[in-house]
Amino acid sequence: MHVCFIGDSLVLGTHDPEFCGWPGRLAAMALAVTDKELNVYNLGIRANRTNDILERWPTETARRLPQDQDCRLVFSFGGADASRPEGYPRVDAATSVSNARLIMQAAQAQYPVLWIGPTPMHKPEHNQGTAALNQGYARLARELDISYLDVFTPLSASHVYLEELQAGDGAHPGATGYRLIAELVAGWDAWRAWLR
Amino acid sequence: MHVCFIGDSLVLGTHDPEFCGWPGRLAAMALAVTDKELNVYNLGIRANRTNDILERWPTETARRLPQDQDCRLVFSFGGADASRPEGYPRVDAATSVSNARLIMQAAQAQYPVLWIGPTPMHKPEHNQGTAALNQGYARLARELDISYLDVFTPLSASHVYLEELQAGDGAHPGATGYRLIAELVAGWDAWRAWLR
Lengths: 196, 196
Known about the structure:
Chain A is of the alpha/beta class. In chain A, 53% of the residues lie in helices and 12% in strands. Chain A has a five-stranded parallel β-sheet with strand order 2-1-3-4-5, sandwiched between helices.
């Protein structure tokens, strides 16, 4: 099975001292529960907004996914859209959901896809932004019949995750936070179904 | 510092149970000896030949490397060129070195670059192929004044590395082999200079 993980710096694993983020940890965990040979590509890019992802995901995945094999995509984005380096979101919520629609519709037409939602942020306005995207994306996922994992809610209730955000740059956790995200995905029925 | 590691399945870390390959391990080791914030992208693709890398490295790196920051490239390839799925090399040695010239000349014109050579293979003909590329690339690197690390020679003398090849698919090591490669790069003056 060949899987591309596509998204922003939370997918990449920015500030992960092990430099593999949650996708790498998720794949390592998967080895224990599947006989499938896993080929995993981390296509997270720091600061990537939905419009950046929309532009590059088709070519970057096509180069990596052999046409005659079992290939799947996992998307996770939104944090960069909601970030506010100039005092307002880099991508407003409506446009973000609209971009997400274009990404996910095209992706599901070609591959099995899973969608992981955005994560909590330390700064309140940034966090309100990712919370709103979490809602908008979840609604869109239901409409498109794509399996969507809300990680925002459980991570918002995790003292460890929030403390790591606060101790870091406010947007990225550390090793424990990335492990928590991996564990949420590892326990998700939709992902587990992929491993059977 | 932003670093893209570009190459084939040995860069990607195919069959690494930790799914980070030597670049991820190298970056984790680097944290102990540098104050620089490291942003690392693994752009290894399984089976990527030099012509594949020549075609995609400019766009994939440009998307990831912010123009106003300290950005560098590390290349490692050759194993896929020398592989012989049909009984002859997928890319003959002369063409491989010629492609390498195009890649490395263009890369060094834009970024600081380092070049890690190809690794030993279990099958004798495949191994003779990567040995020959190691020589050809080293000679080209001297001509272009690019720092080149011969990992073929020390890994060929490593019982552990060769045993992992034999126990696996003959081309890719396991966790220990990937760690050995990372250690070779970590101890290399040219890489250590980047961390100062």
